[in-house]
């Protein structure tokens, strides 16, 4: 049965390096949570501690409320999915699926039954006699996951399983993975540095930086209500625009003035006066004709374009439908202030402002 996973103040030090710092988070039964962050932020070390390959320096790991301290990896009932969905190329799908059970000494009849059941759930019945090296990537993904699930793990851990695959393949495998997860309802901890992967597949995302958890939330929360500058900048492609602004407060209202606009009212709240950052995502800026901001260049994405527009000495990135502007045009800019963020330049925290445009 799939289980609940709790990490409490988990810490790992390697001599001077604090790889993971007081990490607390919990995964509900059946939840798909991604650990997302740049290289070296402590994702793999966290995974290795949960799997039992690394011993925590401090803190605890609980599976269904029971500490796993001291339990070797093979006694943790954890399913690990390897990089690139490696399967044994010379073995049949059936033998690949049976491998983990055989290693555990499960008898032939029981093995056959379990393999049949998992093959049915993952739509692999017609492929049971096919060799590993005759599978396409989507089939390999299912076999790699099936090989793990057949052992009835309490938790499934995946460490950058798609990292060496090309972009088109990753996109189609992401979709399939989501379907598999929906159907199987396993508790999954998925490690990735790829925000698109995390955003598209996860129930919740835990964003890490330099060993510390920055925020945990649904993809929507992480994208729309990041807690700090790191999360705001790490999530979103193209990245959020950060515009230097001067904050004015009064009557419970917060307004900002930037190099290109005066007195933009963000909403109700309080903010320290002075210079801070106004965060606006590239999809939340509209362009108009007859303005004063020059389009320096544009990148075509297909149906959309990214305009690079000069604004008070910096280049803003703006996503528009293709064909709305050309290089050298001068455009006006309208920010969707309901979706703007105000980021404290001192603490890097996103300041809580209740937008007038969004119902409470
Ligand atoms: N065995 C080790 N000995 C010493 N330092 C280590 C060891 N393993 C990891 N580290 C350090 O701990 C920090 C976190 O590494 P970790 O591999 O967990 O990060 P990551 O987010 O998974 O990055 P990547 O995606 O590059 O693997 C890094 O500074 C790394 O150099």
Automatic annotation (TrEMBL):
UniProt-recorded Gene Ontology molecular function terms: ABC-type transporter activity; ATP binding; ATP hydrolysis activity
SUPFAM superfamilies: MOP-like, P-loop containing nucleoside triphosphate hydrolases
Entry keyword set: ATP-binding, Nucleotide-binding, Transport
Gene Ontology CC annotations of this record: ATP-binding cassette (ABC) transporter complex, substrate-binding subunit-containing
Domain ABC transporter residues, every copy: 5-235
Transmembrane segments: none
Superkingdom: Bacteria
InterPro entries given in the database record: AAA+_ATPase, ABC_transporter-like_ATP-bd, ABC_transpr_MalK/UgpC-like, Mo/tungstate-bd_C_term_dom, NA-bd_OB-fold, P-loop_NTPase
Signal peptide: none
Pfam families, per the entry: ABC_tran
Family, per entry: Belongs to the ABC transporter superfamily.
Protein name: Sugar ABC transporter ATP-binding protein
Organism: Hypericibacter adhaerens
């Amino acid at each position: 049965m799939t289980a609940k996973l709790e990490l409490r103040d988990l810490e790992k030090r390697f001599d001077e390096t604090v790889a993971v710092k007081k990490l607390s988070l919990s995964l509900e039964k059946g939840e798909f949570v991604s650990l997302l962050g740049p290289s070296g932020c402590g994702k793999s070390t966290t995974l290795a501690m949960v799997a039992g390959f690394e011993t925590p320096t401090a803190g605890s790991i609980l599976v269904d409320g029971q500490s796993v301290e001291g339990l070797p990896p093979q006694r943790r009932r954890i399913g690990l999915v390897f990089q690139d969905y490696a399967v044994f190329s010379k073995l049949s799908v059936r033998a690949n699926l049976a491998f983990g059970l055989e290693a555990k000494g499960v008898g032939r009849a029981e093995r056959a039954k379990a393999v049949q059941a998992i093959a049915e759930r993952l739509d692999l019945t017609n492929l049971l006699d096919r060799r590993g090296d005759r599978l396409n990537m989507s089939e390999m993904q299912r076999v790699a996951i099936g090989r793990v699930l057949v052992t009835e793990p309490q938790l499934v851990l995946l460490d950058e399983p798609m990292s060496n695959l090309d972009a088109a393949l990753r996109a189609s495998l992401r979709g399939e993975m989501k379907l598999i997860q929906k159907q199987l309802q396993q508790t999954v901890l998925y490690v990735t540095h790829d925000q698109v992967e995390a955003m598209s597949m996860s129930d919740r995302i835990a964003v890490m930086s330099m060993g510390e958890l920055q925020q945990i939330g649904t993809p929507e929360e992480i994208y729309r209500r990041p807690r700090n500058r790191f999360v705001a900048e790490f999530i979103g492609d193209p990245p959020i625009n950060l515009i230097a602004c001067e904050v004015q407060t009064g009557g419970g209202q917060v307004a900002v003035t930037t190099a290109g606009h005066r007195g933009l009212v963000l909403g109700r709240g309080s903010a320290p006066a002075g210079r801070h950052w106004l965060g606006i995502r590239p999809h939340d800026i509209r362009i108009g004709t007859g303005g004063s901001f020059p389009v320096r260049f544009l990148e075509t994405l297909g149906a959309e374009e990214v305009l690079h527009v000069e604004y008070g000495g910096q280049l803003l990135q703006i996503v528009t439908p293709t064909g709305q502007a050309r290089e050298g045009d001068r455009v006006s800019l309208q920010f969707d202030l309901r979706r703007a963020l105000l980021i404290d330049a001192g603490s890097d925290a996103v300041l809580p402002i209740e937008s007038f445009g969004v119902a409470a």
